[in-house]
Amino acid sequence: DTAAFLPAPQNLSVHSTNMKHLLTWSPVILPGETVYYFVEYQGEYESLYMSHIWIPSSWCSPTEGPECDVTDDITATVPYNLRVSATLGSQSSAWSTLKHPFNRNSTILTPPRMEVTKDGFHLVIEVEDLGPQFEFLVAYWRREPGAKEHIKEVRSGGSPVLLETMQPGVTYCVRAQTRVKAIRRYSAFSQVECVEVQGESLPL
Amino acid sequence: LRKCLISMDMRHLEKSFQEMKRALQNKDTFQNVTILSTLETLQSTKPTDVCCMTNNLLAFYVDRVFKDHQELDPQILRKVSSIANSFLYIQKTLQECQVQSRCHCSQEATNATRIIHDNYNQLEIRSAAIKSLGELDIFLAWIDKNHQKTSGA
User: Fold this and answer.
1) Its family (chain B) (predicted)?
2) Which residue in A4, A194, B33, B103 has a CA-CA distance of 20 to 30 Å to A60?
């Protein structure tokens, strides 16, 4: 019986970027067989008050590949335990548990992708849409000595936002960072992007 | 004395609740009884009582309701877990206020809390837990009203 003993999955780890959390593990390989996996989790509440309770993951009970998007399961900023079991027919392996609980406040926040454009004399920015938990802080300024940096909070990405009416002949520069209040953190600033409206600079 | 405001993802909490509300309220066998009724009478909670009431009600849910509720449906279990862990996080952020002694409890707040626990004790434990879960919207609305600077937890 090839599966008299079904090994438990090994090398569990979570890769989290921009509040998307992916649990991965080393596959259990049995030649000629399709092994499925069950993923379960418990938040800090369960581990503190009802440690016998493990909750089936939203998307991976079962799943075929050696990975599971647990973003919809990790919904609070507390440590979460995660575990995986392999199954083959009626056979199930032991549970393998993530060595260290995962907290979403450890997610990697990348600077946002943005597009800075001119709409006539209007300086416009569109930041990528990263989901409802993301807000953005946009800084913009005139590229000239002593210019003041202006700040604008953008509540959500995916749509153009007017920053300023530009003066012809002046270069305007923009940079942005993401903010996630649910974990009280923000990303590094993006690269600076500059644009200029052609034409004579009007006399003051 | 700066008001003790907490940051909370109300949108997610309310969504989690709405997605289980019908199932919970269908299991509520005592429709004409309420546990959080006192909150309707607390419409004008004094600002100085907000932190204490928030703390007391979070503890009510974390230490009693979620523990007493036994759930077999994984869908409901996920929603309850999401709210329970969010409340646990909020409790931690409120502890910072307590350390700075900005979470004073007046007699009125203490009485209101005791009434809630008394209401809970009147019912059989599972029924009381189901009813309290079904009344989470009352508590969430009260939090939303009294912690205006809410946005993400």
Assistant:
1) Belongs to the IL-10 family.
2) A4
B63: CB partners within 8 A, 6+ apart: none
Closest to B4 in 3D by CA, of B101, B97, B106: B97
Contact A38, A9 (CB under 8 A): no
What CA–CA distance (Å, rounded) separates A10 from A96? 7
Most B CBs within 10 Å, among A38, A41, A45, to test the B interface: A45
> Which residue of chain A is at minimal alpha-carbon distance from B150?
A181
Which residues make beta-bridge pairs with A117? A124
Cβ(B127)–Cβ(B35) under 8 Å?
Answer: no
* Terminal C-alpha separation, chain A: 88
Which one of A48, A58, A184 has the shortest CB-CB distance to B78?
A58
Integer Cα distance of A123 and A113 in angstroms: 17
Per-residue pLDDT of chain A (204 residues; tens, 9 = 90+): 444 589 999 999 999 999 999 999 999 999 999 999 999 999 999 999 999 999 999 999 999 999 999 999 999 999 999 999 999 999 999 999 999 999 999 999 999 999 999 999 999 999 999 999 999 999 999 999 999 999 999 999 999 999 999 999 999 999 999 999 999 999 999 999 999 987 765 554
User: Tokens in use for B85?
Assistant: 């862990």
- The distance from CA A19 to its chain's CA centroid, rounded to whole angstroms, is 3
Check if the beta carbon of residue B132 is closer than 8 Å to that of residue B36: yes
